[in-house]
Amino acid sequence: MSSSSSSSSDGMEGDMIGAFQAEYEEAMLNEEAEPRRPRRRREFIRRDRLGAHDRLFEDYFADDCNYPPSFFRRSFISGCPVLECLLIYDSFGFRSLKINSSTLRSISIKAGNRFGSGDIEIKELVIENAPCLQRLFGLHFGYGLHVSVLSAPKLEAFGCFFTWAFSSTKLVLGSSVMQEPHVNRLSMARCKIKILAVHLYDLSLDTIIQLLAYFPCLEKLYVASNYLRQSNFWRTKHQNLITSLDIRLKTIVLDSYRGQKSEVNFATFFVLNAKVLELMTLVVPDKRYNEKFLELQRRKLQLENKASRGAQFHFTPKSNSRLDNVMNMKDAHDLDSWDPFIC
User: Are the C-beta atoms of residues 253 and 279 closer than 8 Å to each other?
Assistant: First the structure.
């Protein structure tokens, strides 16, 4: 009985294999009968790349170029569908630059200086429409550059790294105007900027407090300064403000910290009032960086009375600071990788 069942199963399996093999052979015969399409060879196109470079230079970059700067801005920047990072470094020959781009994510501009040369210097940067823009850095705003951001809904990082007292540097976000050393026409337009890096001519707590009101979502703050001429006393002056000001800062970097009274008062304000602070980094000049200096500063800053229990305070030598590197940035790809809070 069992042998009969086994032979029956083997017969069915053999029939199935035979049927499959016959069907496969028939398909192969049909494929051979169909005429094969001839293979297309890739067509070689000889491109005059060197000539294209020469024409581009003669049209837009030569001293006696064929087209004015407005043609370049309109046809190159606006018309480039893959442009993501734009670095404008020591550019001359035009006063205003307007940007409309659906792809740009990072923009940085370094306005140069050629006093007495007669060259036309860039004075105005207008971001008319940049829906993907996230980072806007000014490497050198020392000569009265005006920056207007009309539409950049995703902008969350802004940096202004060099200002002088005699400059008329101005930032316009929508209907609000920020002009160093004061913020004018404050409008609570719900700025979504979370990262701010500023280089002040004079270290001023009042200016930073205005910026905190201007940027209510601010989480990271990088501050550098040239001089320490203000006392930055705040306990009496800002006593009423402390209870109402919502400080959301989680990360603070204070560059070139020398332990002067102005700097101590500035840093102590955040030590004692920033309730969600996670990390404060104080960048110390190499000559002052020693254990005796650090221990003295820990006492002056009253770290034992910090408002945020989980806050950490880190001292690092100036040689580790990356601000000098960004001031000499000449590659647009560095815009995405550079972070002023990595010290």
Answer: no
The pLDDT score that the predictor gives to residue 340 is 57
Q: Which pTM does this prediction carry? A: 0.70
Between residues 251 and 19, the one the model is more confident about: 251
Identify the bridge partners of residue 251 per DSSP, sorted by sequence position.
Answer: 220, 279
> How many other β-carbons are positioned within 10 Å of the β-carbon of residue 298?
13
Residue whose tokens read 């309109």: 74
3-state class percentages of the chain: helix first, strand second, coil last, to nearest 5: 30, 25, 45
pLDDT confidence of residue 165:
45
pLDDT single digits (tens) 18-70: 776 777 677 766 665 556 666 677 777 777 777 877 787 787 767 788 877 66
Whether omega before 181 lies within 30 degrees of 0, making that bond cis, reads yes
- Each residue of 236-250: b (16+ CB within 10 Å) or e? eebeeeeeeeebebb
Specify the pLDDT at position 197: 86
Q: What are phi and psi of 136, to 5 degrees?
A: -130, 115
| DSSP H helices in the chain | 2-33, 49-56, 69-72, 205-214, 239-244, 261-273, 291-300, 323-327, 334-337
Q: What CA–CA distance (Å, rounded) separates 79 from 82?
A: 9
Strand pairing report for 157-160 and 195-202: parallel
Distance CA 60, CA 73 (A): 10
Average pLDDT, the chain: 76
The answer to whether 270 and 280 have CB atoms below 8 angstroms apart is yes
Q: Are 156 and 195 in contact (CB under 8 A)?
A: yes
